[in-house]
Amino acid sequence: MSRSPPAPAVRLDAVSVRYGSRVALRDVSLQVGRGEFVALAGPNGSGKTTLLRVLLGFLVPESGRAELLGDDLAGLPIRERARRVAWVPQDESPRDDVPILDYVLYGRYAHLGRLETEGARDRELARDALESVGLADRAGDGLLSISGGERQRAVLARALAQEAPILLLDEPTTHLDIGHQLDLLERVGALSRDRGVTVIAALHDLNLAARFAQRIVVLSRGRLHADGPSGAVLSEELLARVWGVAADLRRDPRTGAPYLLPHRNLPGPDAPTAPSGAGPVHVVGGGGAASPALRLLADRGFDLTAGALHLLDTDSETAEALGVPVAIEVPFAPLGSEVRERNRRLLATARAIVVAPFAVGPSNVANLEDLLPFAGRVPIVVLVRATDGRWDFTGGTATAVLDELRRRPGVVECALPELADRLRALLAPSPLGASATAVSR
Amino acid sequence: MSALAPSGASTGRGRRRRLWLALLLFGMALVLLFSPLVGSVDIDPLRVLAIVLSGGGVLFNPCAGAGPTCSLDVIAVWQGRVPEVLLAVLAGAALGISGGALQGIFRNPLADPYLLGISTGGTLGASLVFVLNVGEAQADLVLPLLAFLGSILTGAAILAVARGRYGSVETLLLTGVALNAFLSSILTVVLLYNPVGSIQVTFWLLGGLGGATWPRDGIAFGGILVAGTLIAIYGREINLLQLGNDVAQSAGVDARRVRNRVLLLASLATAVAVAFTGVIGFVGLAAPHAVRRVAGPDYRVVLPGAAVVGAAFLVAARDLSYLAFPGTVLPIGIFTSLAGAPFFFYLLYRRRQSTTMGGP
Amino acid sequence: MSLTNEPSPLAPTPRGVSTAVFAVALLVVAGIAVAGTAVYYAARTSSPPGSIAVTDDLGRTVSVPFDPARVVVLSPSIMDSMYRLGLRSHVVGVDCYAAAFGGLSADYSPDQISLWNLSASMCVQIAPSLDSEALLNDSPQLVLASTIVSVAEVEEITTAYGIPVVMLQPPTLSGIEIDVSLLGTIFGVSSAAAQLNAQLAMGLASAEALATNLTDNGTAFPTVLVTYSTDENGYWTFGPGTFGESLVELASATSISANSTLPYPELSGETVLLAEPEYVVYGTGFGLNLTSYDAAPFWSDLNATQHGRAIGLDSNYLTEPDPTMILVGLPSLIAVLHPDPAP
After folding, report:
1. Within 13 A of B178's CA, how many CA atoms are on the CB side?
2. With touching defined as 3+ CB pairs under 8 A, do chains C and A touch?
3. Cα→Cα distances A328→A160, A248, B297, Å
4. Which residues pair with C235 in a beta bridge?
5. Of B128, B238, C18, C26, which has the highest C-beta tally within 10 A?
6. B93-102, pLDDT tens digit by residue?
7. Is the confidence at residue C3, as pLDDT, over 80?
8. What is the dihedral of CA B167, B171, B172, B175, to 10 degrees?
9. B299 near B288, Cβ under 8 Å?
10. How many helices (H) and strands (E) does chain B have?
11. Cβ(C70)–Cβ(C92) under 8 Å?
C-alpha cells in the first residue's frame, strides 16, 4: 500500500464535454475530498447536470480526466462505478407500486452476484437506509402509495443502500414543498457529517446551498466560475454576473449563512434603453401610497427606483412586480443604516424625486429627512394628499420636515394625474449626466 | 430457484406471491394430465388416462384386456394428443416469457413477442414453402426451418441496430415497424400471385398445433428451455430497468447489454415457437399482465409466472377449440384472440376501478 | 309560431310549391332512367338474326351466335365436354393461371394438354384477374366459363365488348347432362350430345346396378376416406353436397365425412385414424403423389395404408364435373373400392 495520502473522492482534470457542436463543459478542474458536502450551482444550461453525468460515467469527456477515489472513471466497470458513486436523480417517477423495502433492495444490485439472492446483510442495510430517511415504518407500503416528499426520501434510501462513499444529487428538492426540502437536505447533511459520505448536490436554490453545504462550486456557461466556502463565494456581484440578477446580500440571523434577496433581472446588453433619457426617478413612499405613482410612471416609460421600503410593504411589492430597484428593510424594523445608505445612493443617481403621500411614523421618518440634502439638486415633486386624515405619527416631526422641504427651492407640489407631464416638463431642459441604466452598487 | 426468488419473502406479499405461483404450477400439472382427454374424437377417458400414465405403453400396458381398437387409441393419444398438449405448453411458455421480457425491456405494457417484426419474418419464410410448392414430405422439415430462419434473421437485423450507435429504444421500435412493413409488402406481392399459397399462409398466420410430434417437441423443448431460463435470470436487471436506463445504470446495471441480451433470447424463444406453431397472438401480451395483476411488478416473479400462465392459456385454448367445434380443425389463434379480447377489457375495467394514489 | 305566420290552408306556400316541383322532376328523371335501362337491355337481349337465346346454369338468358367458330373456354370441365362433342376446332383460347405460377399446367394435367392439343399461346389468364386483352386477341364470338371466373368479370366482357358469355356450372351430377345438351344446342350437334348423354346415363346405370347387387347380397358398403389434399392438421375431404361425395355414393361406398357439416371439411388425423376407413383414396396429379400424403398425420398408422388399401386416383376425376368424371372416374373408383366384384 502506498504511503501517499488517500486519493480525493472526486477529481476532474481539465474536463471538457461536448454535445454535438455545443460545448457543455469547458476545461473544468475540480477536486472534492472525502466527506465533503459540496453544492453545485449555476444557471440552467451552465453544465451542472453534465458534470454529474460525467461523474456517473454516463458521458465520456472529450478531453481531460475524471477520477473516482483515485481510479480513472473510464476504466471502471459499471458495477464498480455503482459501488463507488450513487445517484439521487431529480425526478425518478416510478410506475409500479413496488414495496418500498424491495425498492430499496434494488440498490444492492451492485453488491450481488448474478445468481445470488439478497441475504440478511442486504436486508439489514436496506432497513438501515430506510431508518436514516425516516421511512422505516413504511417498509411494506407500495412506492406509489406514499407522498412525493416521502418518495424522494425513498429514492435517497435506495441510493444509500448502494453503500457508495460518494453521493450525487441532482436538484433533489425540485418537486418538494419547503418542509420536505429542509428535511431532505438535513438528512443528507447528517450523512455527510456522521458517516463521512462525500456529497455533491446540484442545487438551484442558492440559499439552501449556502445553508447546508460548506462549499459551493459555481458553474457558468460550462466553465468553473467560483469554488470556495459559501460565505466567500456568494455575493451580489456573483449573482449579477453569473445569473444576471440584481440582489441584496444578507446574513441569515439564525444560521449565520449568507442569504440572497433577488430583486429583478438586470437588463441584458441589448435591452432597450429607457425612453425618457438619462437617470431614473426615485419614488419615496410606503404603505401603498407610492404604488399609484409607481405604476403611472412605469407606464409612461420612466426608469424608476424606490426606497426606503419595508419587505412585505405593498409598495415594495409593487416595485418588485414592476422590476424597480428598491432599498429594502426587513419588515417592521426601523430603517437601518445600511438601508438608508443604499437609499441615499439611489437618491444620488436619481434625476428627480417623487414624494408620495405616505403615512410617516418613527420607523420611516428617515425617508423624509434624507431628502433634505437633495432639495435644489434635483427636482422634487411632492404629491398632494387626496384625503384629509392623520398621516403624521411622529408627533409633528414629519410635518416639520415636510414643511421645511416645501420651502426649499426646486420642490413643487402636484396632483397624481398630472405627475407624469409635470415630471417631463421639469426634466425637459437637457438633463445632466448621461448614464442610461440604473444599477445598484 | 435462487435468483428467481423475490425478496420480501418473509412479508405477507412474498408469501402471497409464492402461493399464487404454487397454485399456478399445480393447475398446470392438472391441465397437463387432463387435456389429452379432449380431442376431435371421443375416446374413453379412463383409457386416455391409462395411456398417459403408462407413458404410451412404456410403464405398463394400457391395452390389457381391451379390444383391437385400443392400439389405435394409443397411437392417437400418445403420438397425437400428448405431443400436441406439450407443444401448447412449450409455445405458450415461450410466448409468455418473451412477451413479459419485452414488456419489461421496453417499459411498455403493450409490447408482445412480435413487436419487432419477428412474426412477419417467420411468415415470409413459411410462405416460401407454400408458394414454392415444396412437397409435403419435405415441408415437414423445411417449413419449421424456413420459418425459424425468417424469424431469426429479422431478429438479427433488429439486434444489429440495437448494438449500433443509434440503438435507442425509439430507433429499435421504428426499425421493427419499418421491417414489419417491408416484409409485409413482400409477402403481399408473393401471395397476390399465388392465391393457393395465400390460403395456407392465412392458416399459418392463425397458428396451429398440428404436426406436433415427439421429435419436434424435443427440439422445441431444448431451445425454449435454454432461452427461457436465461431470460428468467435477468429478472432483477429488468426490475431495475423499470426505473429508467440512467437510474439502472447508476445502480450498476449495464442497461444496453442487458437489453440486447434479453432481446436476443426473447427473439430466439419466439422464433422457435413460431417455427412450430405459426403466429399465435395474444398469449405473449396477456400472460404477463395476468401475472402482474396478481403477483405484483417484480419481474423475478412475472417472467416465470408468465411462462406458466402462457402455457396454461394456450393449452386451455386448445381444449376449448376441440370442445366448442367438435370434428372441425380450427386454427388456435382464433381462440386465443377470442379469449384475449374480453380478458383485456376485464383488465381495463379493474384498472379503472383501483386508482393508484400518489402522482408521479 | 304566431297565427300571422301560419300559411293559409287553401293556397300552398312558396316553399311547398318548390318542394312539389322538385319531387315531380325527380320522378320524371327516375322514370326516364328506368325506361331507358329497360329499352337498352331489351335491345341487347333481343336476338339479332343468326343467333339463339339460351339459359345458362346461373339462370341467365344469353343471346349467342349459332355454332360460333371462335370460342374461348374458361374451364377444364367445359373443355372436356367440348372435346368429346368433337368441338375442339372451335376452341381458340383456354384459361390459365398467371404464367409465373404454372400457366396452363396449373389448370390442365399433362394428359389433358396433350390429348386436347393445348398450347401456351391459347392462354387467357384468369388469376389474379381476368386478362381481357388476351381474351380479345382471340376475337371470340362466345365465351364459355365456369364460376372459377367471377360473374362480375364476365359481365364486363359482355357489356364492354359485346361478347356473349355462357356460364356452365352444374350443381349436381345430373347437371352435366344438361350442360352437354346445351352445348349441343349452341353448336348444332344435338345428336352427338344425345349420344354422349346416353353414355353418361349408361355409366350411372351400371353403378346403380352394382349398388343393387351389393344390397341384395347383403354386402356392406365399404367405408372410404377420399382426400384431395393434406397438411399437418389433417385430411381435406368432400362433405355432403359435393361432387366428390356424390361420386362416393354412386360407387357404393360410404365416405367417413358423409355426416360433416361443411362441404369441404378437414378431418383431423385422429378422426381419420379412429374412423378406420377400409379404403383411402387420395388425389394425385398437380404436384401431389403418394409421398405428399406420406407426411399426413398418422398416415403410416392407418389400417388402410398398412394393408395396401390406400390408392391414388387422378384428382381431376374427383373434382371436375364433366363427362370424364362419370365415364372414367366413376368406374375407376368402383374398381378401387370393389376389387372383387360380385359376378
Report:
1. 9
2. no
3. 43, 9, 55
4. C230, C267
5. B238
6. 999 999 999 9
7. no
8. -120
9. no
10. 15, 0
11. yes
DSSP string, B225-271: HHHHHHHHHTHHHHHHHTT-HHHHHHTT--HHHHHHHHHHHHHHHHH
C297/B193 touch (CB, cutoff 8 Å), yes or no: no
Which chain B residue's Cα is nearest to A108? B251
- Cell numbers that stand for C283 in this block: 388425389
* CA distances for C219 relative to B325, C105, C224, C332, C334, angstroms: 35, 42, 15, 20, 15
User: C80-133: per-residue pLDDT in tens?
Assistant: 999 999 999 999 999 988 776 678 888 888 889 999 999 888 888 887 778 888
Mean of per-residue pLDDT scores for chain B:
85
Question: Cell for C165?
Answer: 358469355
Picking from B35, B44, B72 by the largest number of C CB atoms within 10 A of its own CB, the best residue to mutate is B72
Chain B: give the shortest CA distance to residue C235, in Å: 10
Cβ neighbours of A268 (radius 10 Å): 7
Residue A222 near chain B (CB below 8 Å): no
Distance to chain B for A64, nearest Cα, Å: 22
The strand pairing partners of C223, in sequence order, are C254
**Contact assessment for residue C206 and residue C162, using Cβ atoms and an 8 Å cutoff:** no
Cα-to-chain-centroid distance, residue A110: 37
In whole angstroms, give the CA distance from residue A80 to residue A332.
57
Strand blocks (E) in A335-383:
352-355, 380-383
- Any chain B CB within 8 A of the CB of A215? no
- Chains A and B: 3 or more CB pairs within 8 Å of each other: yes
What is residue A360's DSSP assignment? B
Amino acid sitting at position A412 = V
Q: Which residues of A5-30 are buried (b: 16+ CB within 10 A; e: fewer)?
A: eebbbbbbeebbbbeeeebbbbebeb
Sheet holding A85-88, edge to edge: A85-88, A166-170, A198-202, A37-41, A215-220, A223-229
CB atoms within 10 A of CB B140: 17
The predicted structure's pLDDT at residue A83: 95
CA distance A67 to A144: 37
Contact residues, chain A, for B233 at CB < 8 Å:
114-115
The string of pLDDT tens digits covering residues B238-292 is 999 999 999 999 999 999 999 999 999 999 999 999 999 988 989 999 999 989 9
Residues of C in contact with B78 (CB under 8 A): none
Residue A328, SS3?
strand
pLDDT under 50: residue ranges of chain A: 272-275, 431-441
Show the cell assigned to C248: 362416393
CA neighbor of C287 nearest in space, from B247, A441, B238, B194: B194
As a whole number of angstroms, the distance between CA B326 and CA C64 comes to 49
β-bridge mates for residue A226, sequence order: A218
Cell reading at C100: 409465373
Which residues are bridge partners to C125 per DSSP? C96
**What's the pLDDT at C127?**
76
- Nearest chain B Cα distance for residue C64, angstroms: 33
User: Does any CB of chain B come closer than 8 Å to the CB of residue A128?
Assistant: no
Q: Which three cell numbers stand for residue C77?
A: 370441365
**C298 and B76 in contact by Cβ < 8 A?**
yes
B71 at C interface, C-beta within 8 A: no
Over the stretch B46-70, which tens digit does the pLDDT of each residue have? 999 999 988 888 888 888 877 888 8
What are the percentages of helix, strand and coil residues in chain B, rounded to 5?
Answer: 75, 0, 25
Cell of C171: 350443381
Identify from A68, A83, A85, A98 which residue to disrupt to test chain B contact, counting B C-beta atoms within 10 A and taking the largest count: A98
